[in-house]
Amino acid sequence: MNNDIFEKLKAIAVNQIGIDEEKVTPESDIIKDLGLDSLDIVDMLMSVEETFGVTIDDGDVAEMKTVADVVKFIEDNVA
Protein backbone atom coordinates (compact mmCIF):
# COMPACT_ATOMS: atom_id res chain seq x y z
CA MET A 1 0.00 0.00 0.00
CA ASN A 2 1.21 3.47 -0.91
CA ASN A 3 1.93 5.22 2.39
CA ASP A 4 1.83 8.71 0.84
CA ILE A 5 -1.71 8.12 -0.40
CA PHE A 6 -2.72 6.70 2.98
CA GLU A 7 -1.31 9.72 4.84
CA LYS A 8 -3.12 12.18 2.53
CA LEU A 9 -6.36 10.23 2.94
CA LYS A 10 -5.87 10.15 6.70
CA ALA A 11 -5.35 13.93 6.70
CA ILE A 12 -8.63 14.39 4.82
CA ALA A 13 -10.45 12.23 7.38
CA VAL A 14 -8.92 14.04 10.34
CA ASN A 15 -9.01 17.64 9.09
CA GLN A 16 -12.20 17.69 7.10
CA ILE A 17 -14.42 15.24 8.95
CA GLY A 18 -12.91 15.49 12.42
CA ILE A 19 -12.06 11.84 12.96
CA ASP A 20 -9.55 11.03 15.71
CA GLU A 21 -6.21 10.41 13.99
CA GLU A 22 -5.57 7.23 15.99
CA LYS A 23 -8.77 5.65 14.62
CA VAL A 24 -7.65 5.93 11.00
CA THR A 25 -5.75 2.79 10.03
CA PRO A 26 -5.72 0.86 6.74
CA GLU A 27 -7.98 -1.74 8.34
CA SER A 28 -10.52 0.81 9.63
CA ASP A 29 -14.05 0.17 8.38
CA ILE A 30 -15.33 3.46 7.01
CA ILE A 31 -18.77 3.14 8.59
CA LYS A 32 -18.30 0.84 11.59
CA ASP A 33 -14.93 2.05 12.88
CA LEU A 34 -14.84 5.66 11.71
CA GLY A 35 -18.55 6.33 12.11
CA LEU A 36 -19.01 8.10 8.78
CA ASP A 37 -22.58 8.65 7.63
CA SER A 38 -23.57 9.03 3.98
CA LEU A 39 -22.97 12.79 3.97
CA ASP A 40 -19.50 12.36 5.52
CA ILE A 41 -18.66 9.74 2.90
CA VAL A 42 -19.76 12.01 0.05
CA ASP A 43 -17.71 14.90 1.49
CA MET A 44 -14.64 12.69 1.90
CA LEU A 45 -14.93 11.22 -1.60
CA MET A 46 -15.32 14.67 -3.15
CA SER A 47 -12.07 15.68 -1.42
CA VAL A 48 -10.42 12.46 -2.63
CA GLU A 49 -11.48 13.22 -6.21
CA GLU A 50 -10.13 16.76 -5.96
CA THR A 51 -6.89 15.82 -4.18
CA PHE A 52 -5.95 12.83 -6.33
CA GLY A 53 -7.60 13.75 -9.67
CA VAL A 54 -9.74 10.62 -9.83
CA THR A 55 -13.42 10.09 -10.55
CA ILE A 56 -15.31 7.78 -8.21
CA ASP A 57 -18.51 6.22 -9.55
CA ASP A 58 -21.35 4.98 -7.34
CA GLY A 59 -20.40 1.39 -8.17
CA ASP A 60 -16.86 2.03 -6.96
CA VAL A 61 -18.14 3.52 -3.71
CA ALA A 62 -20.09 0.34 -2.95
CA GLU A 63 -16.83 -1.64 -3.09
CA MET A 64 -15.01 0.61 -0.60
CA LYS A 65 -15.44 -0.78 2.90
CA THR A 66 -12.09 0.06 4.52
CA VAL A 67 -9.53 2.83 4.31
CA ALA A 68 -7.24 0.38 2.48
CA ASP A 69 -9.96 -0.13 -0.16
CA VAL A 70 -9.98 3.61 -0.84
CA VAL A 71 -6.16 3.70 -1.03
CA LYS A 72 -6.20 0.75 -3.47
CA PHE A 73 -8.80 2.50 -5.64
CA ILE A 74 -6.64 5.63 -5.76
CA GLU A 75 -3.50 3.61 -6.56
CA ASP A 76 -5.32 1.85 -9.40
CA ASN A 77 -6.85 4.99 -10.89
CA VAL A 78 -4.25 7.77 -10.57
CA ALA A 79 -2.76 8.52 -13.97
SSE inventory with pairings:
Blueprint: H1 3-17, H2 38-52, H3 58-63, H4 67-77
Helix pairs in contact: 1-2
Instruction: Report the structural category.
Output: mainly alpha
The major β-sheet equals: none
Count every beta strand, where a strand is a DSSP E run of 2 or more residues. Answer: 0
Report the sheet-strand fraction.
under 5%
Shape: globular
Q: Could you tell me how far the N terminus lies from the C terminus, measured between alpha carbons in angstroms?
A: 17 Å
Task: Please count the helical segments.
Answer: 4
Give Rg in angstroms.
Answer: 11 Å
Helix/strand order: HHHH
Considering DSSP H and I runs of 4 or more, what fraction of the residues is helical? 55-70%
Whole-number mean pLDDT: 93
Model regions low in confidence, pLDDT < 50 over at least 5 residues:
none
Structural features:
single chain; mainly alpha
Structure description:
The protein is mainly α. It has helices at 3-17, 38-52, 58-63, 67-77. The two termini are 17 Å apart. The mean pLDDT is 93.
